[in-house]
Amino acid sequence: MSKQTITITVNGEAYTEEVEPRMLLVHFIREKINLTGTHIGCDSTSCGACTILMDGKSIKSCTMFAVQANGKHLTTIEGVAQNGQYHPLQEGFKEEHGLQCGFCTPGMIMRAMELLEKNPNPTEEEIRWGISGNLCRCTGYVNIVKAVQYAAKKMEEAKQGKGALNEV
Amino acid sequence: MKCKTSPEVGGMGHSIKRKEDARFLQGKGQYTDDFKFPGMLHMKILRSPFAYAKILSIDSSAAMELEGVVAVVTGETLKEYNLHWMPTLMSDTQMVLPTDTVMYQAQEVAAVIATDPYIAADALELIEVEYDPMDPVINPHTALEADKPVLRPDKEGQTNNHIWHWETGDREATDKIFDEAEVVVKQDIYIPRIHVASIETCGCIANFDKINEHLTVHMTTQAPHAIRTVLALVAGHVGLSEEKIRVISPDIGGGFGGKVPVYPGYVIATAASVLIGKPVKWIEDRSENLQADSFARDYHMTGEIAATKDGKMKALRIKTLADHGYTDAAANPSKFPAGMFSVCTGSYEFENAFTEMDAVYTNKAPGGVAYRCSFRVTEAVHAIERMVDVLAQEVGMDPAELRLKNFIQPEQMPYKTPLGWEYDSGDYPMTFKKALDKIGYDELRKEQAEKRAKGEFMGIGISTFTEIVGAGPSKDFDILGIKMFDSAEIRVHPTGKAIARFGTKSQGQGHETTYAQIIAEELGLPATHIQVEEGDTDTAPYGLGTYASRSTPTAGAAAAMAARKLRDKARKIAAYLLEVSEEDLEWEPGKFFVKGAPEKSKTIQDIAFAAYTNHPQGMEAGFEATHYYDPPNLTFPYGAYICVVDIDKGTGEIKIRRFLAIDDCGNIINPMIVEGQVHGGLTMGLAPAMYEELIYDDEGNILTGTFMDYLVPTAVETPAWETDKTITPSPHHPIGAKGIGESATVGAPPAIANAVVDALAHLGVKHVDIPVTAPKVWQILKEKGVAEA
């Protein structure tokens, strides 16, 4: 199978790699550039553990080929903390105990990031629907909802110039 | 609960944030599939399309020609080393790879080792297997009929598909009570086959170093030490000696019992690495995980209760048919083929009880014990909690009142059940009354009556269950002969910081945080200064692993006991440093001080430093302790759950309006983590109660083998759980703590099933098997003529 050369920007860094057209984006991220925070939990696009942002939109990276991401900007969990500070979502997940085994966490956070971008002040129902493409087997979702609410509040405060983020 | 330590120390009772979160939140967890080693090869498994078939031939020549393919492993390859079969935890045998027959759909048939996982997957397509399909045995109820094939002719003396018969209790005395009883109720109850479906599937990287004859296996295992010993016992003849085997269980993306067994994939990858001398990685797909890894439940039960007309329960009988698949690979302690099912008398006082169980072979994947079942307690609790409601309906009593009438009373603790368990502690009426008050039970019943009058369907379901966790005392409990103790090893450094290692293995339960809290409680060392490690068999003390909520009861106890050994030594060092006798010293968390002169004191950090720099002559230098804890009994946490449902007449849809769970697990190490365990456990109670089931058709095809139709609940289906607690410590446990991880999964399904039956009870509905789905309920409404068009 002839390979193609692609360039994908991930967390601000450009990666140029030769890949087969059939290589899934999630494998590109995990195997080619060694960002193993993005996980694989199923083979039917159901679990969302592989969720990342592509040009700001949350996608399941198991259901896209790497070549389709040529020229795109991706954000993975590794690129979420900025300048040694947690993103409000990371802080929220820790403070509200929104993770246990940690396997769904990266995808859950990436999905919630777009959710809060589009809807900065979601209701509980909107959060639950908003993360319904992401399965979690440990938390029963209650504390994930609280974590997203925590982040929403924190981000709102930050917009108003109040509150500081915790260090990583 | 009042904390003895300051928040800075973070001992028992503090909801300190988790140490493990930092790496998980930044994508820096280290799960099995994240590891890469030089020269690493990849393995993919070819699986059977048939449930039962002869293998006539396997032609792998085309696969071998594909560039990048290193080897194709078949049963014949493994047979040369006598590794084509392996023992199971239940002293049965399981195929690693078949040489002549496949026994279930999705069974491993051959494996490809290649330089790239995509190439390995390509090569699977090129292997040609010729099968001669046979009629499978799928229905366990007919598995013993004479015309059915004997599935396991390989087993000596096996003339039918019966695996074992198991009885507990006094049959004659129980029968006598039934013969004389005023009221007898009887109900068939099926608990369907389900699957843990942890979001991370199973996998391993076997890495055999030919020069040093040393094997390292990174793998998704809940019991790494036991795996090491099994590998040595099973493959010692090919040079795998226990001191040269290192099993590393890194971060695990959820276990739930699905990562206790040894799967063929692990063995094939290990054998391949030993043969090839390179690292071999095997990571299964979701559909492989659902279709071939250990299932849970699949119990067909008939329950009976004998009682008086006014609802005093007298005796319990349960007959069970267990479908184990083609081999008995249930992960039980060796003397308990039906696990702890005999805890089925529940929270109630019975004069006598008797249970008998039979297990049969069918053409399905092996398993049985998984999914937060505490060794079949899910089945036991579902049986008794459903039966109590069946009785309540029969005698015309409110199910809450019936429970209150029959509870074991707190003053009867420790209580010996008719089936032999000694419950350690519990105040069931207190906890249940708290639940009734909190949910407003009486008002709910009034609302229900009003709704019924209007033709609406509302149900209230109760589950007041007793768990049994913390296996277990060496007298009765072993895994393949190894007693079910667990262990802790604490080493305090000269600067007063510590490393502590355990024989258990977290899969998200927060051990890195909570074990540190136990040590912090005992020594007054801040939990943040205590690094906890598990899962590396070269470094951690031998333990039996984490499953069946045993970590807190066993290794948690060992942590306290090892810390107390350190405190004993600390007292001696403090007496030496302060130039007083040991009897003159008093302890408060973090320091010893002289009685009557509290200004004269030595902190635990002073003492740790002295243990290396100025230890008393004649005393061993250093500051460390180990404890292997053999529990005197199990722990018996319990709970009172109440579920309120509304049912849509038009669709049969069941909406959980409220679900209140009050749990009592004795003293609590970290309330935040306990609550998280309960939330997750409740969701894993909801799932089999309403959504999940592994369904087979008559040919043995699995119909729900992917996440497209194996319905793991999302945040939308999952209700906003309400939780609360009471605290009844375990008297025999060093810190009074009981296990909790599985309580909610054990307790929740009957609360949901009881709520649904309760909503339909006035129509004459006595029972509905889980999962209670909208189509099932709609069918009932339609039959009763009350479905809205």
Describe the structure in your own words.
The complex is a heterodimer of chains A (168) and B (789). By secondary structure, chain A is α+β, with helices and mostly antiparallel strands. Chain A has helices spanning 25-32, 88-95, 105-118, 124-130, 142-159; strands at residues 4-10, 13-19, 51-54, 57-60, 73-75. Chain A has a five-stranded mixed beta sheet with strand order 2-1-5-3-4, with helices on both faces. Chain A is globular, with a radius of gyration of 16 Å. Chain B has 789 residues and is of the alpha+beta class. Helix content of chain B is 28%, strand content 25%. In chain B, the strands form nine sheets. A seven-stranded mixed beta sheet of chain B has the order 3-7-1-14-11-12-13, with helices on both faces. In chain B, strands 9, 10, 15, 16, 17 and 18 form a six-stranded mixed beta sheet that branches. In chain B, strand 31 and strand 32 (654-664) form a beta hairpin. In chain B, helix 13 (511-523) runs parallel beside helix 14 (552-578) and helix 16 crosses helix 17. The longest helix of chain B has 27 residues, at 552-578. Chain B is globular, with a radius of gyration of 28 Å.
Describe the sheet with the most strands of chain B: 7 strands, mixed
Considering DSSP H and I runs of 4 or more, what fraction of the residues of chain B is helical?
25-40%
Quaternary structure type: heterodimer
Side by side, the strands of the main sheet of chain A go: 2-1-5-3-4
Number of helical segments with 4 or more residues of chain B: 18
Which class best fits the helix and strand makeup of chain B?
Answer: alpha+beta
Strand content of chain B: 25-35%
Distance between the termini of chain A: 43 Å
Largest sheet of chain A: 5 strands, mixed
